[in-house]
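Subject: two folds for Thursday's group meeting

Dear M.,

Sorry for the delay on this. The cluster queue was jammed most of the week, so I only got both jobs back this morning. I'm pasting them in the order they finished. Each block is the input sequence followed by the predicted structure tokens. Could you check whether the formatting survives your parser before we put anything on slides? The first protein is the one we discussed after the seminar.
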Amino acid sequence: MNADLVQRWIRPQLRELRAYHVPEASGLVKLDAMENPYPLPTELVDTWLETLRGAELNRYPDPQAAALKARLRESQGVPADSGLLLGNGSDELIQLLALALAGPGRGLLTVEPGFAMYRLIARFCGLDYHGVSLREDFSLDLPALLTAIERRQPALVFLAYPNNPTGNLFDRAAVEHIIQASPGLVVIDEAYHAFAEDSWLARVSEYPNLVVMRTLSKMGLAGLRLGFMVADPAWVAEFDKLRLPYNINVLTQLSAEFALRHAEVFQQQTALIRAQRDSLFAALQDIPGVQPYPSRANFILFRLSAGGADEVFEALREAGILIKNLHGAGGLLRDCLRVTVGTQEENAAFVRALKTIMAGRDLARAGGL
């Protein structure tokens, strides 16, 4: 009976989708989710807790999060003439954009491989989804993108900068062509801005159809679930109509504002992660059969030249290390795995385990001959 009710009332487009899966990571070295591996320094914890002591949990939070917005404008360099909207992570903002621009015949266009939530949110919000393949080296195929934009006339174009899961920054001139050619909004998703050392934020005022999104998750505040978008105030005023009241809770507001007052701590951590990223990349280059791709994010995509991504992923998991298996996506991600940059100790454990697994595979193949 329940199945019949679901079949009758749940939209067919929703029934066809699969929920975003987050794997269990208990007891494992967690290098699968692009998190900052460093906690809040001990010397700041007591001060942070004292800040939370004054939280009025019996009252609703500031619906506009005015103090936090002011701190974000100052610390993130948000242009004074641009609108600013906060979300419960970037995912909520992607959903708000999709809901605001959805309509019969309207579509969302992005590159593939790209962030999985663009496709998922487009489909459950009623937008047509259009994916344009990257080149073999994961760079933008600008002619193909411009042709797709001209043909599809998308309401939304999403470009992650750096791209997830490939880690590379797209050519700025090519991105500018896309912004100029697009009839609707172009959203530059800068989730990994803390590691990229490049941004489009300062150029929002130049283009009426440009939106820049960021999250504080990757810099070390993933547990707070805070994202923000910057765009022309006229756009933000419309998107704000879809934002549910009090979407940023009081603990997130206080904690994020506190963290941004100590931004230098997180800047030091992200600088350390960038250095560890370079060391990890070099270590992966030295493992036979492993091809890592240069990254401007806090993760590294790598391909196994002889295949076997599923087996290597499971072997790493058995060794106590969880990374991301992308082989199932197929296409350009065939035989690919992705590892988050962890602490020096976590990275070393991962490299040791991968070396052992790859050497064992080589021996097994040699024995088979």
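Second protein, same layout:
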Amino acid sequence: MLKVENLCAGYSGDDAVRGISIEVAEGSCVALVGANGAGKSTLVKSLCGLIVPRRGSVFFCGENISALPASEVARRGISLCPEGRHVFVPLSVEENLLLGAYPRLPSFGRFRRAASGDLQHLYEMFPRLGERRSQQAGSLSGGEQQMLAIGRVLMARPRLVVLDEPSMGLAPMLVKEVFKAISSLRTAGMTILLSEQFANSALAVSDRAYIIERGSVVLEGASAALAKNPAVMAAYLG
């Protein structure tokens, strides 16, 4: 579904992503594992059209999307759950979720009714969001906001979900809850690209993984095998 070839990208000066090539098969969960500053978020933003790559190509479902703006990448079916969640804090939980469905539903008339089935499905997946549907998003805990950010992405019915550092800033118990939700999405057949610094969690829920250091892929393979790799264990798993 997604193929990245020799991608180089950055903000100024040196590239933060240096010749990375990755693939994501339809229905799989692929992890990008690396420490803070390894280049994972820069890579993710390049795939989603938020940064224009300096070199290399991004193919989605066989089409080159390297030069497309983020809005068009989203229309093609790639939805990003950004690092730091970025929920709309003054709006209610349900209003945040409805914004995720906005690009694919009529902008007037029976908008809420058209989205009701998706809302119900999400409330079943994340019961806490259903309990807080009328509550302001800014009053939610960090873990609840992360669930809301993931739910907002799913409302778009994407073909590929990109999750950037979903565990950032969360307590260990909340991290477990978020990754339980990611595992459920994988089981349901959702195609997922997961950027995550906590290797244990990322390797446990993914099929394949790429280990990134200083903007380059240093190891890749099946997640189960990488979890037993001595180099990965020493550097990331303790």
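Two things I noticed about the second structure. The longest strand covers residues 2-9. The longest helix spans residues 172-187.

Cheers,
T.
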